[in-house]
Amino acid sequence: MSDSPDTKRYGLFTLAIALLVWGGLALVVGSTHIWARPLGGLACLVGAWLVTVSRVHAESDLAAAARHVSLETSERPRPALWALGAGSLIAVGVSFGYLYQDALDGYHDMEPVYFPGQPSCSAPASGAI
């Protein structure tokens, strides 16, 4: 028995929404578990991708025209974009390694880069700059 395309499309959309909800809950509730946040983020990304793949909502004429134009051009990214992506991944990995090593040592070497609006640890106690 084969399902109709609409049944498959809405089933995929339902799975996407379930993944988005599960991923969001994992991000909010599982903040203390080491694997909950990465898996929740991954579930959100896969869910968002499945929403676009399911194509439940019809696209507008403008989006269809943009899709038609993009089909005429090359779809593959240039080597410079691949190099930029690889360099970004390397930079993220090195940054994570340094922050992880600092966390193991008790957060004494690096400034808290994840709170950009907060005063630094070396700021005077009075708050005067």
Written overview of the protein:
This protein is mostly helical. It has a domain at 1-57. Helices cover 64% and strands 0% of the residues. It contains four helices and no strands. Helix 1 (5-29) runs antiparallel to helix 2.
Q: Work out the helicity level.
A: 55-70%
β-strand number: 0
Percentage of residues in DSSP E strands: under 5%
Distance between the termini: 74 Å
In terms of structural class, how would the helical and strand content be classed?
A: mainly alpha
Average pLDDT level: 77
Number of helices: 4
Shape: flat
> Secondary-structure element sequence?
HHHH
Task: Draw up the topology in text.
Layout: H1 5-29, H2 36-54, H3 61-72, H4 79-104
Defining traits:
129 residues; 4 helices; mainly alpha; flat
Short description:
This protein is mainly α.
